[in-house]
Design goal:
The chain is of the alpha/beta class. It has one domain: P-loop containing nucleotide triphosphate hydrolases (Rossmann fold, 3-Layer(aba) Sandwich), CATH 3.40.50.300. It has a 7-stranded mixed sheet, sandwiched between helices. Strand 3 and strand 4 form a beta hairpin. The protein binds adenosine-5'-triphosphate and magnesium ion. The site of adenosine-5'-triphosphate has 20 residues, from helix 1 and helix 11.
């Protein structure tokens, strides 16, 4: 059965996009088929895995004014990885929050789109959703449409306090909308394992969230920036680099949980 996982953190720059890009590549390496949904108007995943322009259709057409009955099948773009497809974002998506504000069931629009395209979605083992750095309507839609959320974290105090807000938001969605979305896990990114601060943050997080914290952490490395800049995953650019092995390990952990 298809598992839908949103990568969420209201904090910017913690590695949501990088993790979606690289976990998708690692899942494909494990022979899983993946659909990425880029729900971030910044369109960073789209920049790495596709080359659409702002005139092309995007997730915006699925969510708002879907008068042409745009389907997932017609919108999806293939990527250079055989088993990975993408529903692209573009800058129009930045107005979606306003455009959706007065719609009925405005927090469940993506969930209903996936339901209405169930035949197309069921071809994928995993759907990974890249979210923008906020807990606004686009992110709420992503969470509501997902079975799980994955939360990339930095080893700093703001990230750890932000985690409480995120878990409270999820609890509210579970109570108000009877959402079944649960936390698949937290994982640290851009890590230097020699740093005391990282080890303290890891221990603190492990104490508070023993079930949710992933063992695998993603090492900091310039190979990630190089991969993002050249439109590929790090496992293809530098197969033996530390973050490539880290993302492989994290993906194996993820597949055991979901
Ligand atoms: N393991 C890593 N080592 C070094 N640099 C990294 C690593 N992971 C991510 N980065 C870099 O950090 C920056 C932020 O990463 P990314 O865009 O994935 O974060 P994000 O959470 O998606 O950001 P936003 O909240 O803006 O969407 C990027 O420049 C990326 O190349
Ligand atoms: Mg991003």
């Amino acid at each position: 059965m298809t598992k839908t996982i949103s990568f969420v953190n209201q904090k910017g720059g913690v590695g949501k996009t990088t993790s979606v890009i690289n976990i998708a590549a690692c899942l494909a390496e494990q022979n899983a088929s993946v659909l990425i949904i880029d729900m971030d108007p910044q369109g960073n995943t789209t920049q790495v895995y596709s080359n659409i322009t702002d005139d092309d259709d995007s997730v915006y057409n699925l969510l708002v004014n879907n008068t042409n009955n745009t389907s997932i099948n017609s919108l999806k773009k293939s990527t250079y990885i055989n088993n990975v497809d993408l529903l692209p974002s573009n800058v129009l998506l930045s107005s979606a929050e306003l455009d959706l504000a007065n719609k009925e069931n405005r927090e469940s629009i993506l969930k209903n789109v996936l339901k209405n395209n169930q035949k197309d979605c069921s071809k994928y083992d995993y759907i990974l959703v890249d979210c923008q750095p906020s807990l606004g309507l686009l992110t709420i839609n992503s969470i509501m449409a997902s079975d799980y959320i994955m939360v990339p974290l930095h080893a700093d105090i703001f990230s750890l306090t932000g985690l409480d807000l995120l878990t409270q938001t999820l609890s509210k969605l579970q109570t108000i909308f009877e959402s079944n979305t649960t936390i698949l896990g937290f994982f640290f990114t851009q890590v230097n394992k020699k740093e005391t601060l990282f080890n303290e943050a890891y221990e603190l997080c492990l104490e508070t969230y023993p079930k949710e914290l992933f063992k695998s952490c993603i090492t900091t490395s310039t190979s990630i920036d190089q991969a993002n800049a050249t439109g590929q995953s790090v496992i293809h650019l530098s197969p033996q680099a530390n973050p490539s092995n880290d993302y492989r390990e994290l993906t194996i952990e993820l597949m055991k949980k979901a």
